[in-house]
């Protein structure tokens, strides 16, 4: 029998400097609905990626506990079923193919970890998603490292565990070029050295695909990211990678 990836959320004894938490929105969702959702309720491909229909509606409604009630009677995915009934029926309010009568496998534990992150650690069976919620102290620490961050940069860090210890990290994060947002994926080792930066979604900026600038980040510490950039697009990528690296550092090492 093939073993599905497991999710461990109580690892404080093994992870003394990596405080454990589930994404805050997921906790609010669980409080509202009575069960833990997949990240795909609000994101197209895991925390940090582009917002899905329900996520967009939730953000527009205030992105807080009161937002659930504000959008409860709307139909975010256009399947003819209100968000309230979708949630009560344990179906995905962002996916029209998922309904209370046929919810699909969106709540399978493996769906909590984006597939691109899982591919980077193919032999890992145990995962730990960790909140990267920035405190004022984190924001000040990031500024000292040359990165301007805010609470809008809150994210989810995906941590693969081997023998109950971190084996690296995965982080999905946005980059902006000429007002258009695209998404990148950072994979690091357990020392927070960058293994790779790759394009996750760049349909709005197709020229971001296949650039050689991504190769420059491999082997660098997330604390100090540099690249030789020649174009405005490459500069926007360098800035996004540097900010993502600092976010990782202040939440996992400097917190």
Binned, the helix content reads 25-40%
Query: How far apart lie the N and C ends?
Result: 40 Å
* Poorly predicted residue ranges: 1-22
Number of helices: 7
Structural class: alpha+beta
Number of strands: 7
Characterize the overall form.
globular
Overall pLDDT level: 85
β-sheet strand percentage: 15-25%
Keywords: Signal
Protein name: Cytochrome c domain-containing protein
Organism: Paraperlucidibaca baekdonensis
Describe this structure in words.
There is one protein chain. The chain has 255 residues and is an alpha+beta fold. It folds into two domains: 93 residues, no CATH class; 139 residues, no CATH class. Strands 1, 2, 3, 4, 5, 6 and 7 form a seven-stranded mixed beta sheet that branches. A hairpin with a 2-residue loop joins strand 5 and strand 6. The relative contact order is 0.14. The N terminus is likely disordered.
Topology:
Blueprint: E1 6-7, H1 24-33, H2 53-60, H3 67-70, H4 83-88, H5 115-120, E2 126-132, H6 136-144, E3 155-162, E4 165-166, E5 169-177, E6 180-188, E7 194-201, H7 232-252
Parallel strand pairs: 1-2
Antiparallel strand pairs: 2-3, 3-4, 3-5, 5-6, 6-7
Helix pairs in contact: 6-7
What would a concise description of this structure say?
This protein has seven helices and seven strands. By secondary structure, the chain is of the alpha+beta class. A hairpin with a 5-residue loop joins β6 and β7 (about 195-200).
List its traits.
alpha+beta; 2 domains; disordered N terminus; signal; Cytochrome c domain-containing protein
